[in-house]
Amino acid sequence: MAYQIEYAYTCHMGRVRANNEDNFWCCGELLPAENHGTQGIRSETISGNRTPALAVFDGMGGESCGEMAAFVASREFGKYYSANKRTLRDVPEDFIQGVCKSMNKAVCGYSEENHIQSMGTTLAMTLFTPESMFVCNLGDSRIYFSDREHFRQVSTDHVLGRNLLGKAPLTQYLGVPEEQQILEPSIQEIEHKEGYRYLMCSDGVTDMLSDGEIADILAREIPLADIVELLLERALQKGGRDNVTIVLCEVQKQDSGRRLKTWLKGLKDKNER
Questions:
Q1: pTM of the predicted model as reported, rounded to 2 decimal places
Q2: What is the CATH number of the domain that holds 78?
Q3: pLDDT for 212-227, tens place per residue?
Q4: Number of folded domains in the chain?
Q5: Is 143 helix (H, G, I), strand (E, B) or coil?
Q6: Do residues 80 and 99 make contact, with C-beta atoms less than 8 angstroms apart?
Q7: What torsion, rounded to 10 degrees, do the Cα atoms 177, 182, 184, 185 define?
Q8: Secondary structure (DSSP) of 50-104
């Protein structure tokens, strides 16, 4: 199936935190290290032929370490993606292992260079190839699937049991030297199907909203940007105790009319140079 991906996303500081330790990578866009989130909801559509990639990062560490970890990882993701798009298209499993190692090395390198003892970031990403798509995560940033009738979490929570006194420690994340722990991202391949939706989000969403609440919102037949806005509103209404990052995408049939307009615009721009 010739397909395109529509996606909508936002990043908000929440109602409690003084800084933003979340970041994202959405087909080339990311936030600077020091930021106050996005201004509102952003949305785009991209052809599946361009091997779209989307990711969410939730940084951890004292002072500004968390936001730097998330930024360094998102920046490195972009560098690796740009240099290895052919690998993503042809051997996606190799791309996933390679990009995770590259991001981990970048975060560890920044930590060592700046004499930081503890910093890291979670990862939740979706990657699209011509034949199928892949979801991958490290840590507790989640990925959900919805086709309106069915809803399930397709990521794995890498946490050590349950902690009644606070957040359970993570067992996997970016920022752990290889000699201390082997990086083992959770990876799942899923077929393309029109209407499939995937939500990537930081725990600023999942700590505030139940799976049932998220499922209800994802099943609504409204624009993706409106779904993202509703998820954000609900998370803030429930307290907004953490930074909130939401990236939502939907698999759609290729819009041939839009594809032609894009090609004509590119031809016009080329002739005007």
A1: 0.92
A2: 3.60.40.10
A3: 999 999 999 999 999 9
A4: 1
A5: strand
A6: yes
A7: 10
A8: G--EEEEEEEESTTTHHHHHHHHHHHHHHHHHHH-HHHHHH-HHHHHHHHHHHHH
**Beta strand pairing call for 22-26 and 197-201:** unpaired
User: How far apart (Å, rounded) are the C-alpha atoms in residues 77 and 67?
Assistant: 15
Contact predicate 96/53, CB 8 Å: no
Tell me the per-residue pLDDT of 119-147, one tens digit each, with 9 for 90 and over.
Answer: 999 999 999 999 999 999 999 999 999 99
Distance CA 134, CA 121 (A): 20
pLDDT higher than threshold 50 for residue 273: no
**Spatial separation of the C-alpha atoms in residues 79 and 253, rounded to whole Å:** 29
In angstroms and rounded to an integer, the radius of gyration of the C-alpha atoms of the chain is 18
Task: Give, as one character, the DSSP assignment of residue 105.
Answer: H
Number of H helices, E strands in the chain: 7, 12
Q: Which residue has the tokens 């290729």?
A: 254
Which token pair is 232?
């954000």
Domain region containing 160: 3-272
